[in-house]
Inverse folding.
């Protein structure tokens, strides 16, 4: 059973546009929601993360929007650049040392930003 | 942060043979994680390796197929045994920094092709 569902599987955006990737979860014990970015030939790297006590977190051009009641969160990339072309993974965990403390990853979204 | 060196970076293997993947971390860590990343699929946790004890395998993964060694706090190996084309995938080593935020650090991955 997929603990975290991610869409779309692939996304093509024009340079300067907004890229939006969505994730949904079921387990209400999750309290930590990171996004990872992976370039070809590299391992994933943490991009930005949020806890459910806030509805939004922004770091530069990257913003996480979090809807606790809907159990959904999304990554918005503003002013998308060709250098943002990568695979993005959302993830979730119950981060307080419980048995759910491991990270559960979505299937990934391959983002291509055309110049 | 943690720097993880993984090797080999890629290999092409004959079916029925075995491949051992090495993972070296630049700091001592209690737990090391092995993931499989199949094309278009999520990062799937294979097992968690603790130093001095047997690895803990996730559902669908068994020790006979994926034996793991953890001889010290900075090193681990994953062996893919009796390989078939279905084992073709990227295998990733990971460690986690569990502080206020859990951040996973990944090696660059081993791209395995079984022919």
């Amino acid at each position: 059973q997929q603990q975290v569902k991610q869409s779309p599987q692939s996304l093509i955006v024009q340079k300067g546009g907004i890229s939006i990737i969505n994730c949904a979860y079921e387990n209400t014990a999750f309290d930590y929601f990171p996004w990872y970015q992976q370039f070809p030939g590299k391992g994933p790297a943490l991009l930005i993360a949020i806890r459910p006590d806030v509805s939004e977190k922004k770091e530069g051009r990257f913003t996480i929007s979090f809807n606790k009641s809907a159990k959904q969160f999304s990554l918005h990339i503003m002013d998308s650049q060709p250098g943002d072309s990568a695979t993005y993974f959302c993830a979730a965990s119950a981060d307080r040392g419980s048995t759910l403390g491991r990270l559960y990853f979505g299937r990934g979204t391959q983002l291509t930003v055309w110049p | 942060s943690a720097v993880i060196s993984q090797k080999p970076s890629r290999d092409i293997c004959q079916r029925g043979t075995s491949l051992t993947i090495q993972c070296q971390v630049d700091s001592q860590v209690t737990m090391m994680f092995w993931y499989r990343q199949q094309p278009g699929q999520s990062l799937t946790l294979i097992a968690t390796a603790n130093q001095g004890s047997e690895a803990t395998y996730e559902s669908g993964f068994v020790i006979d197929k994926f034996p793991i060694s953890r001889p010290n706090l900075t090193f681990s190996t994953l062996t893919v045994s009796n390989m078939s084309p279905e084992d073709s995938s990227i295998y990733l080593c990971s460690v986690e920094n569990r502080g206020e935020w859990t951040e996973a650090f990944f090696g660059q991955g081993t791209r395995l092709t079984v022919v």
Observations:
- The two ends of chain B are 37 Å apart (CA to CA).
